[in-house]
Amino acid sequence: MEETISLKDLLGTVKKRMSLILAITLTAVMVSSIVSFFVLTPVYQASTQILVSQKKNDQASVYNPSEVQTNLQLINTYNVIIKSPVVLEQVIKNMKLKLTVEELNEKIIVGSEKDSQVVNISVKDEDAKQAAAIANTIAEVFKEKIVEIMSIDNVSILAKASVVDGQSPVAPRPFMNIAIALIVGLMGGVGLAFLLDYMDNTVKNEQDVEKVLGLPVLGAISIIEDSKMEEMKTRRTAQKTRRGESIGS
Q: pLDDT in tens for each of the 249 residues of the chain?
């Protein structure tokens, strides 16, 4: 016999397991809140910008389209050089950082907008001032090293990284984490409720008997609680007493 599940059955399962669903959801939210606010260390980000342009002494070619196109093609190369060991080792040496090149590399994000001669250097660190200092040092070291590496002096620092009072961390994002935990907890609770209901093979009512045996139910024996039995006996006794009084009168 083909078994079908109706929307009413699904809603019934959710209602029956509502306490379990709420418990899992609240647990997920509480764990996410504790981890986001008390366990994870805030991470700050600071950014600086460098401009790839023509040589400062070459005023005649400032607006030369071919020179601009050449600089745009060089930007991809510059992005790689900025995160290269030759630059990062000098940054570590200048700032006396207790980091390896690989560790410093993981903190740096280099990118540029399409068809733009501006390169953004972003640094993430647990200390906002440290992040700004590293970003500015990278820009200065790169500006010096690019002359030695490619014999080109076409880089200038457009904007230095700075620390703003009350600067918010970029990670973690507690409210975002809580929202995700709420959704995941709710989905997990509902999924577990359906799984438990699917694995529950016990017979609870006449409908379950029909599903298991495939036979119609002709009758059912109701369960009467002891308190109701006592109440029924009291009513019957009262009724008999009233009948006896009415016959005697």
A: 445 667 887 888 889 899 999 999 999 999 999 999 999 999 999 999 999 875 554 444 445 666 667 767 788 889 999 999 999 999 999 999 999 999 999 999 999 877 788 999 999 999 999 999 999 999 999 999 999 998 888 889 999 999 988 888 999 999 999 999 999 999 999 999 999 988 877 766 666 666 666 677 666 666 667 777 778 778 888 777 776 666 555
Residue 225 tokens, joined: 């609680």
Residue with tokens 């070619």: 61
* Residue that the structure tokens 């009948």 belong to: 243
The full set of domain ranges for the chain reads 16-39+172-199, 44-159, 206-244
Instruction: Spell out the CATH class of 44-159.
Output: alpha beta
> 85-95 and 65-82 are packed helices; what angle lies between their axes, rounded to 10 degrees?
60
Q: How far apart are CA 111 and CA 85, in angstroms?
A: 18
